[in-house]
Amino acid sequence: MDIFEVLTAISKSRINLVKRGLNENKAMLKAQRVVSKEYHIPMPEIQKLIGNRIN
Fold this sequence. Notes:
The chain has 55 residues and is an all-alpha fold. The chain has helices at 3-20, 24-39, 43-50.
């Protein structure tokens, strides 16, 4: 699985969550968690791909 597939999965998940009624920020966080668990990628790595940092 390459970077673009991970980002695509996050984007699709976020879009579906927004359509269900979540706001953009909560949908993005939930999408990141879902993809992290589904593809066994640590959250800090997903955060780096997106450009966010965990404080």
